[in-house]
Amino acid sequence: MENSSLLLHRSVFGSSANSGNVMTESEAKRLLDDWVKNEKLKVHMKQVGHLMRVFSQSKEYGNEVSHRWYLAGLLHDADWDQWPDQHCKKIIGELEDRAIDPEIIRAIASHGPRFFGVEPVSEMDKMLYAFDELSGFVHAYSLMRPEGYAGMEVKGVKKRLKDKTFAAQVSREDIQDASERAGIAVDELIQFVIDHQASADLG
Ligand SMILES: [Fe+2]
Ligand SMILES: [Fe+2]
User: How far apart are CA 188 and CA 163, in angstroms?
Assistant: First the structure.
């Protein structure tokens, strides 16, 4: 995403008239199947969607809210595979055309403030930004461990974070920035990802 042309140059997304309008899980997955051929990218979005859902459930926000959090995670990179130079303009446009809840669209629009120029404001915005890079990083670490997620510890993840050659594309600065914005320590975020990521439904 090293491309300043991804800046969205807007700060309002969707319409408040569409509050509460969502896609079903199967509709959202159909969109992914249509748009995303890269299986690894699909796994990433399903993992982030899962983390978003479990986090909001841990806050007891209720099923409707948790579903919105899930959708934001599940769809946040939907356009990256086919339209990297229109990331995340394309998925925002699609969700606006489908009259989807503005909170979901805004969270997606702010998942990379350096790239899209949209500040994460709501808790959902901030947690999507926080889970995005960390989810992929912990997953990369699980793939190099013979035991996968089993027995994984925060200190092992942090050791890899200090090794700049490991998953070099993951921005350590963004992980730190997102943690500060979310008001949750990086260690705590890592622990949450370790605890929950392995149980994500990747189907
Ligand atoms: Fe992205
Ligand atoms: Fe992502």
Answer: 20
Ligand 1 centre distance from Cα of residue 8 (Å): 13
Counting other chains too, the contacts that 118-122 makes at CB distance below 8 Å and 24 or more residues apart are 118/8, 118/10, 118/11, 119/11, 120/178, 120/181
CATH of 22-198, one of 1.10.3470, 1.10.10, 1.10.3210, 3.40.1130: 1.10.3210
Q: Which two tokens stand for residue 158?
A: 């942090």
Ligand 1 being an ion, which residues bring their Cβ within 5 A of it?
Answer: 77
* DSSP 8-state code for residue 98: T
Ligand nearest the Cα of residue 112 is 1
Ligand 1 centre distance from Cα of residue 21 (Å): 23
d(CA 99, CA 105): 10
**pLDDT, tens digit, 9 for 90 and up, residues 161-196:** 999 999 999 999 999 999 999 999 999 999 999 999
Ligand 2 centroid–CA 75 distance in Å is: 9
Kindly report the pTM of this predicted structure.
Answer: 0.97
pLDDT in tens, 109-136: 999 999 999 999 999 999 999 999 999 9
Query: Ligand 1 centre and the CA of 77: distance in Å?
Result: 5
| DSSP type of residue 199 | G
Quote the tokens at residue 13.
């997304």
Alpha helices in the chain (DSSP H): 25-35, 39-58, 63-75, 89-97, 102-109, 113-116, 123-144, 154-162, 172-182, 186-196
